[in-house]
Design goal:
Layout (H helix, E strand, L loop, with lengths): L2 E2 L5 E3 L15 E8 L3 E3 L5 E9 L3 E12 L5 E6 L5 E4 L1 H6 L7 E2 L2 E8 L3 E15 L20 E2 L5 E6 L2 E5 L5 E4 L7 E5 L19 E11 L5 E7 L8 H5 L14 E6 L13 E10 L3 E5 L10 E4 L2 E8 L6 E5 L3 H10 L19 E2 L3 E6 L24 E8 L5 E6 L8 E9 L2 E8 L11 E6 L5 E7 L7 E8 L6 E6 L2 E6 H6 L3 E5 L14 E6 L2 E6 H6 L3 E2 L17 E6 L2 E6 H6 L3 E2 L17 E6 L2 E6 H6 L3 E2 L20 E8 L8 E9 L5 E7 L5 E5 L32 E2 L17 E3 L4 H4 L4 E2 L3 E4 L10 E4 L5 E13 L4 E11 L5 E11 L13 H6 L31 H9 L7 H9 L6
Helix pairs in contact: 10-11
């Protein structure tokens, strides 16, 4: 049944935070006492012997800390995230490399399995702690901007040279092909895992974890933490879940510099925190200049902050130092890479890093070392795998393995006898032995052994009869690819063997010594006798044979060939030996277990567990089913009861979070518009002005209007857009104080969120911002295009909230103004498309893509309330007692003056034609023509 992490012991990793050093620890650790007990596998194939689910509801990620772990040969622990299916396997070697911990997994539920190797009985696992970070924690505090000079100039980037150090929350850089890293000394206290390809953090600043294959354990480190100019460290890493080093996986590094310049432009890339949550503790870059240099420290003007500790300071693509401390001015600090003490640390931690050791001279059969009886020092380190054939037919059941990294020895016995070849308790790795007779070009296998009887550490021991003066080859290797090492090989040749002869044990004949025959309880036929002529033949004995419940007398062979059960020599059928009482086993009726026959179990409506099964291990227990549980849009996999207690909505047994079942759509989000009028701009060419809105649900808001690869052309027109020289592309560029002097400015084309101009109308202020959009084409009268840009307001700004407006369809809707556009040409068409982001009434974020193309609709607004006269009349805002389509408050002395401007002219003709059939008809047009020119 699933386990939920307890909180009886919680360690806040922020306790080690030093104010002006730049680490940023994440998560907390809670006690979790789980012990599997001793686990065995009596079968010849690997199988799952333990499985459980550990849940920690409401957590963004989890990591397990093991206690005592014992994993027998071929056994491993498998941990799987129920959020995204990421998986890690840890055998005895990799468990040690990961210091009895796992990598970081996304989600709040992990499946833990123990897979036992064939015929293993020494498997046990203890889990002591679980590290995690809450999804709903308040992440508003992202530090105090120490190290940021003015606006934060860091930008998101990618790169395989840089790693996030967890859980301390620092940065590191790989600097050679041996996967060695440099960082700050104060980052080493909690430096256990290196993360590459770090994904964006969540909207609440909780960190997200990269794939397991992009996580590497820290295997060794050293450094100094003594303040500015004396803060430096180096570390090495192990392999990932694919068995790759960091360099093998990514194939790149930044070399260390030999000297440090006193001036110039530098680059710093690291995993600092950020007020924009999705960027926080993800890879960002900034560049700047060196301010000053002393014998140990570098001062520079580059934006860094908490989480950047350990970031490399790069000049001309070489590492000249590491980031360590910040200030509240415009100068930050690091340690020089050429500091002697720093160089000594680097050398001691990442010593050598050169070529792998040369293969031993006896790596192949042709280089076999000649040895004699006694002990010989051996090593397989650096050896390769020979291609010579071998098999385990001579040593079946001793676990002969791969003969990995094997070495060769030759041996010529001085006399015939029994040769003992062994590494038993003499080496430091799991060994295999094979003995051949002959030479390298003409040899045959005569003996082998994997695990010797009575030998510890899976070392080997075999005996083989040898002939004096003959040539033998001894091959020593490892059981698998992780088995190589050093130790000693022992040879021991006994004297010439005792005479042998035929030995009869029953009717079986073998050639052994007299003493061996006696110990077997056999009858010795004499020295030099043999088994020719079958000296041990004895007529086959007979006995009772049971086939089904029937008994007959036959030989054992005949009984077996008939599919019967032989009852023994000289047995008979007198006592009905073939009677078999009906088998019994455990019977589960619901969760209740009892012992019964299969038939009785079936009649009781139970589930029979098999003959000879029992109730000792509670075989009838059925763990409660799990399924996806939705709580406020967040998904976790728990039981239905736990979901109910959390106030959630249970999605059904065996459901999961993979398809995001808890997503709450934001409601109807679409483009709407309202034509404000025609020829509002004083130009000889026809022009019309429209306000563009985004509708949002009641209580909802709009935060951003963006363009990306899928929505590149955001605003286009088949005509040109009007752009005033007194305005700009954003509503913040349009000052209403200038309308009196430049009336056309009011109809300047611009984008916005909520506010129409720089005054913030109808709100108190206008805090619109934009990033990533080149406005040059728009200011020249063309459209707005961007694959990586947006205009936006902060979610706290009032101007992003939806307000009532009346669109060109005369329907009152709730929405946010996003643009005022004036375009030339009565037939011009405007297209608006974008990726939108906002929040619903519950402050849950949403995203939606919209696209709408529309054209000019003739309209008038005689009362100047921003709503067309047609809509004023349709909505009852204005009366039209004479039915001329003009609100009564705009009445005119000119018949046919439908737009209410006290003139009957071309604008009235266009208004009637543009609204033909509703409300205008042929009589209205004739009226305009009849009174054309009235009013001047």
């Amino acid at each position: 049944m699933p386990l939920t992490a307890s909180a009886d012991l919680t360690v806040d990793l922020h306790e080690d935070l030093v104010e002006q050093s730049l680490d940023w620890p994440v998560g907390h650790v809670s006690a979790l006492r789980l012990t599997t007990g001793l686990l065995k596998n009596t079968e010849g194939e690997s199988r799952v012997v333990y499985e459980d689910v550990i849940t920690y509801p409401g957590m963004a990620w989890m990591r397990l800390y093991f206690g005592d772990v014992s994993l027998d040969r071929g056994s491993f622990v498998r941990v799987t995230s129920l959020r995204d299916g990421e998986q890690q396997k840890l055998d005895a070697r990799t468990m040690e490399m990961w210091s009895n911990t796992t990598a970081y997994f996304n989600g709040d539920a992990l499946r833990v399995e123990v897979i036992a190797g064939p015929f293993t009985d020494q498997n046990s696992v203890e889990i002591e702690f679980v590290a995690a970070e809450e999804i709903d924690i308040n992440h508003s505090d992202r530090g105090d901007n120490c190290g940021i000079c003015g606006p934060d100039d860091r930008i998101p980037t990618t790169g395989d040279n840089f790693a996030r150090i967890m859980p301390v929350g620092c940065s590191a850089t790989i600097y050679n092909e041996e996967s060695c890293f440099v960082t700050a000394g104060h980052c080493l206290t909690n430096a256990t895992v290196l993360h590459f390809n770090v994904p964006a953090s969540s909207g609440n600043c909780a960190t997200n974890q990269p794939p397991i294959a992009d996580q590497f354990p820290v295997t060794s480190f050293d450094g100094v933490n003594a303040g500015v100019g004396a803060d430096y460290g180096a570390m090495t890493s192990g392999t990932n879940s694919e068995g790759q080093t960091a360099y093998q996986r990514y194939g790149t590094y930044i070399p260390l510099a030999n000297s440090v310049p006193s001036s110039g432009t530098i680059d710093i890339t690291g995993f600092g925190v950020d007020d924009e949550c999705t960027r926080s503790q993800t890879l960002q870059h900034d560049s700047g200049t060196i301010s000053s240099l002393d014998s140990a420290a570098i001062s520079y003007e580059v934006d860094v902050t908490y989480g950047n500790s350990g970031s490399s300071i790069v000049y001309n693509n070489t590492i000249i130092g590491v980031v360590t401390h910040c200030s509240y001015g415009c100068e930050n600090y690091g340690t020089r890479i050429d500091l002697n003490a720093f160089q000594n640390i680097i050398s001691s931690v990442c010593e050598g890093g050169g070529e792998p050791p040369d293969a031993p001279e006896n790596d192949e059969c042709s280089g076999a070392f000649a040895i004699g009886n006694g002990l010989t020092d051996i090593t397989t380190v650096g050896a390769t795998n020979s291609s010579d054939s071998y098999d385990d037919s001579d040593c079946s059941g001793t676990y002969l393995g791969q003969l990995n990294a094997d070495v060769w020895y030759s041996y010529t016995p001085s006399s015939s006898g029994t040769l003992t070849v062994e590494t038993c308790d003499l080496i430091d790795f799991d060994s295999d032995l094979v003995v051949y007779q002959g030479t390298c070009g003409n040899k045959s296998q005569v003996a082998c052994n994997g695990d010797g009887t009575g030998c510890s550490g899976y070392s080997s021991l075999l005996t083989v009869e040898v002939n004096g003066g003959a040539s033998y080859l001894i091959r020593v290797g490892g059981w698998d690819e992780n088995s190589e090492g050093s130790g000693q090989l022992r040879l021991d040749l006994e004297g010439a063997p005792d005479p042998t002869g035929a030995c009869c044990v029953g009717s079986s004949c073998s050639t052994v010594t007299a003493s061996d025959c006696s110990s077997l309880g056999g009858s010795y036929q004499g020295d030099n006798s043999n088994c020719g002529g079958d000296p041990c033949f004895t007529p086959p004995a007979e006995g009772a044979c049971c086939i089904g419940g029937s008994c007959s007398i036959s030989t054992a062979d005949d009984c077996s060939s008939s599919g019967g059960a032989y009852q023994g020599d000289n047995s008979d059928c007198s006592d009905d030996p073939c009677f078999t009482p009906p088998a019994t086993g455990a019977c589960c009726v619901g969760s209740t277990c009892s012992i019964s026959t299969e038939a009785d179990c079936a009649s009781a409506g139970g589930s029979y567990q098999g003959d000879d099964s029992d109730c000792s291990d509670d075989p009838c227990f059925t763990p409660p089913a799990n399924g996806a549980c939705c709580v406020s849009g967040s998904c976790s996999v728990i039981t239905e009861a736990d979901c109910a207690s959390a106030g959630g909505s249970y999605q059904g047994d065996n459901s999961d979070c993979s398809s995001d079942p808890c997503f709450v759509p934001p409601g109807e989000v679409e483009v709407a518009y309202a034509v404000r009028g025609s020829n509002l701009v004083s130009d000889s060419e026809f022009n019309w002005t429209v306000d563009v809105y985004i509708t949002v649900p009641e209580g909802g808001r709009l935060d951003a209007v963006a363009g990306n690869d899928e929505v590149e052309k955001m605003i286009t027109s088949t005509g040109l857009f009007y752009q005033s020289s007194f305005g700009g592309p954003l509503s913040t560029d349009v000052n209403p104080a200038f309308y009196e002097f430049e009336p056309d400015l009011e109809f300047d084309s611009r984008v916005t969120i909520g506010a129409i101009d720089s005054s913030g109308d109808p709100f108190g202020a206008n805090n619109l911002g934009s990033v990533g959009i080149d406005w040059t084409d728009f200011e020249s009268g063309y459209g707005v295009s961007s694959v990586n840009g947006l205009w936006y307001v902060l979610p706290s700004e009032e101007q992003g909230e939806g307000r009532a407006f009346t669109g060109s369809d005369c329907q009152e809707q709730n929405g946010v103004l996003v643009a005022r556009l004036t375009t030339f040409g009565e037939d011009s068409q405007i297209q608006f498309q974008a990726l939108l982001q906002g929040r619903d009434a519950s402050s849950d974020p949403w995203q939606e893509t919209v696209n709408l193309t529309f054209g000019y609709e003739a309209t008038s607004d005689c009362n100047g309330n921003g709503i067309s006269d047609t809509c004023d009349i349709a909505n009852g805002t204005s009366s039209d007692s004479d039915g001329d389509g003009v609100p009564d408050e705009c009445g005119s002395d000119c018949v046919g003056d439908y737009d209410g401007n006290n003139q009957t002219n071309i604008d009235d003709i266009l208004l009637v034609i543009g609204n033909w059939g509703s409300p205008y008809n042929v009589e209205d047009l004739l009226s305009v023509l009849d009174n054309f020119g009235c009013g001047g």
